[in-house]
Amino acid sequence: MIKRTSFTVFTSVIAALFLREIQTRFGTKKLGYLWAVIDPMVKVIMFSAMRLATGTNMQGIDLPVFLATGILTYNFFSALMTTSMTAFEGNRALFVYRQVKPVDTIFSRFFVEFLVMCATIILFISFGLYFGMDLSVKNFNMVIVAILWLGIFGFALGLLFAVINTFYETFGKIISFISMPLFLLSGMFYTVDSLPPLAQELILYNPVVHFIEMIHGNYFRVLNTDYVDYTYMMWWTVIPLFLGLFFYAKAEKKIIST
Q1: pLDDT (0 to 100) of residue 30
Q2: Residue 195: inside a domain, yes or no?
Q3: How confident is the model at residue 86, as a pLDDT?
Q4: Which of 207, 118, 101 is nearest to 159 (CA)?
Q5: Per residue in 141-177, is it b (16+ CB within 10 Å) or e — as a string?
Q6: Which of 29, 47, 59, 65 is least surrounded, with the fewest CB atoms within 10 Å of its CB?
Q7: How far apart are CA 256 and CA 258, in angstroms?
Q8: How many C-beta neighbours within 10 Å does residue 34 have?
Q9: Are 159 and 103 spatial neighbours (Cβ–Cβ below 8 Å)?
Q10: Is 96 exposed, middle or buried (0-12, 13-18, 19+ CB in 10 A)?
Q11: Which pLDDT belongs to residue 2?
């Protein structure tokens, strides 16, 4: 009998949890997998129509593409943060198996959201090519780096929030309450450069704005990344990740037994 390594056990658990998450999230819904695409598509169409109705245009930028890049990446981050927050509670019955650790559920949801985002991006690209939109990218590598970095940031917050939410149920309600203002103040519908100086100063306290600006600035040739503070982004990623891992390590047994 071949003894399995810790890494082999970990990958097997993640694969099983991944399939379970896919089935739980999409398998029982009538629209199923289509809803993951319909939701961002409706948002892009709705906000594009609103911008065009007000006569607002962006010189040298295909507006639907601009909105899609922001909305898709923000949805990825938001879904990571919110679904991870309930990962422990949603999989508590599985913790009776010693191979399954609570943190494994966070990893599985990360991969589910990453897969959903990739599938949605591919479909949006197909639509864009069909309708003749300008999909050219100024710096493809940096766009990928920004998306992955945003994913790590979402994972870090999700892990930290999951630990807190386990012991303080009202915390999840607070996060849900602030999610809508965060959606509107994350720079998906405008650039920082287009705002008045005071609004620029205030909105740049939101770390998500820096990620969206990084994506937009490296995607569109007419935009830049002058307002992106990479040090600020790094601190916002490292500190929640450290705190999440630290509190999780301290509370793992309590999380399992709660």
Answers
A1: 55
A2: yes
A3: 86
A4: 101
A5: ebbeebbebbbebbbbbbbbbbbbbbeeeeebeebee
A6: 59
A7: 6
A8: 13
A9: yes
A10: exposed
A11: 59
Residue 138, in any domain of the structure: yes
Please give the backbone phi and psi of residue 60, each rounded to the nearest 5 degrees, phi first: 80, 10
The answer to whether residue 203 sits within a structural domain is yes
Structure tokens at 219: 């995607």
Instruction: Establish if 166 belongs to a structural domain.
Output: yes
Alpha carbon 184 to its chain centroid, in Å, reads 15
**And the tokens for 65?**
């593409």
> Is residue 101 within 8 Å of 178, Cβ to Cβ?
no
Classify residue 91 by its DSSP letter: T
Question: Which of 240, 235, 238, 193 lies closest to 212 in space, CA to CA?
Answer: 193
pLDDT score for 214: 95
Q: Judging by beta carbons within 10 Å of its beta carbon (0-12, 13-18, 19+), is residue 92 exposed, middle or buried?
A: middle
Sole residue written with tokens 């650039």:
191
pTM: 0.90
pLDDT at 177: 80
In the numeric block, which tokens belong to residue 168? 């303080």
pLDDT at 180: 75
Structural domain tally of the chain?
1
* Block residue for tokens 């405008």: 190
**What are the residue ranges in the chain where pLDDT is below 50?**
1
Give me the amino acid identity at 123. L
> Do 72 and 120 touch, CB atoms closer than 8 A?
yes
Which residues are CB-neighbours of 202 under 8 A, at least 6 positions away?
A: none
Residue type, 237: T
3-state helix, strand, coil in the chain (%, to 5): 75, 0, 25
